[in-house]
Amino acid sequence: MNYYELQLTLDNFDTWHDIFVAYLAELDYESFVEEAPQLKAYIQEASYDGAALQTLLGQLQEQGAEIQSYDLALLPQQNWNATWEAQFEPVFIGENLRIVAPFHALAPFDGIEITILPKMSFGTGHHQTTHLICQNMLTMDWNAKSVLDMGAGTGVLAILAERLGAAQIVAIEIEAWSAENILENVALNNSQRISAIHGGAEAIPAVQFDIILANINKNVLLEQLPNYSQAIVSGGLLLLSGFFVTDAPDLVAAAAQVGFEWVRTDARENWAVVLLKKI
User: Fold this and answer.
1) Which of 155, 190, 199, 149 is nearest to 170 (CA)?
2) Which strands make up the sheet holding 3-10, listed edge to edge?
3) Angle at 255 (CA atoms; ends 253, 256), nearest 5 degrees
4) What does the DSSP assignment read for 246-273?
5) pTM as predicted
């Protein structure tokens, strides 16, 4: 599988990089490397739409974004993996969780350690939204809970849920290669209670879960909220991320329409996580 690598050099990087990431994600760009002033974004060759990209860049420039340089290159998969490994650093979330790759050589750790094989899947802990959800998960009760992880990416959230005591986890991922990566990471972490399913909302099993995790973009979340409402027990918790702080009120309002009440909203560098409870 080949990927395109888009490289953008931005003026006012701190102001604009999150905005570019959010909009590129809606065009199916899957992974991002942010090294000011340059943003790199990766998309499958089959998903690349040059006209849509040019329209987006034009719209953002009209809003005030200044792009110093622009480069697009076709990057074979084997080169991508080598590049990603070279840039993949361990992720520490508080004092109790670290996310590492198999090639990291680190000192022993007393907390929870999750090993992620860093292919193209979203969810290595580097992005603010994954960090936010993990941070929230560490404060919640998972003992004997059934869990649904939507848009599971690498499976990192499902693996963390098992480590925290969940009894059964279903991880659903729309991309076939990413669903395969979940299985690789499940094996790496000796997880025993996670099942990976390739699909979207239609693949949600006809059962109800105690906790649902969904780290996806705003539009998909809004579309799938009714599915989550049907798939969760009364009193169950829904943890959402993948959107900006400014989008949180829209998601809270939409969730209220399908039977959820707001518990809290947390933020990290303009990205948000919302915790909701099923009434």
Assistant:
1) 149
2) 31-35, 38-44, 3-10, 67-75
3) 65
4) GGHHHHHHHHHHTTEEEEEEEEETTEEE
5) 0.76
Q: How far is the C-alpha of 215 from the C-alpha of 125, rounded, in Å?
A: 12
For residue 114 the two structure tokens come to 């999750």
Selection from 160, 175, 28, 2 nearest residue 94 by Cα: 160
For the domain made up of 3-84, the CATH class stated in words is alpha beta
Look-up of token digits 């000011």? 36
Reported as a single tens digit per residue, the pLDDT across 65-107 is 999 999 999 976 655 555 555 666 788 898 899 998 887 778 8
Q: Domain 90-278: which topology?
A: Rossmann fold (3.40.50)
> Listing from the earlier edge strand, what are the strands of the sheet with 271-278?
194-198, 168-173, 146-150, 209-215, 232-244, 271-278, 260-268
Q: What are the pLDDT digits (tens) for 196-228?
A: 999 999 999 999 999 999 998 888 999 999 999
